[in-house]
Specification:
This protein is mainly alpha-helical. 61% of the residues lie in helices and 9% in strands.
Length: 69
């Protein structure tokens, strides 16, 4: 992961082994269908999710849930 800054969010380098550990922890209890979708996203699709997440960052939880559905 490269270090980048933009839209008020700073991203710091995360070593691959650390990223893998946290990815597994975050995805282990996810429903199988959601897991399959997420692990098959392209880098471009992840970039879109990051933009949406940043845009929704300050919204109340019910608006985030509505946007995801």
């Amino acid at each position: 992961m490269q270090e980048s800054k933009g839209e008020g969010h700073g991203h710091r380098h995360i070593p691959d082994h650390v990223a893998q550990y946290f990815a597994h922890r975050a995805l282990d209890d996810m429903p199988e269908r959601a897991y399959e979708v997420i692990v098959n996203l392209t880098p471009e699709e992840i970039a879109v999710l990051e933009k949406v997440g940043a845009a929704l960052g300050e919204c109340e939880e019910q608006f985030k849930t509505f946007a995801l559905h």
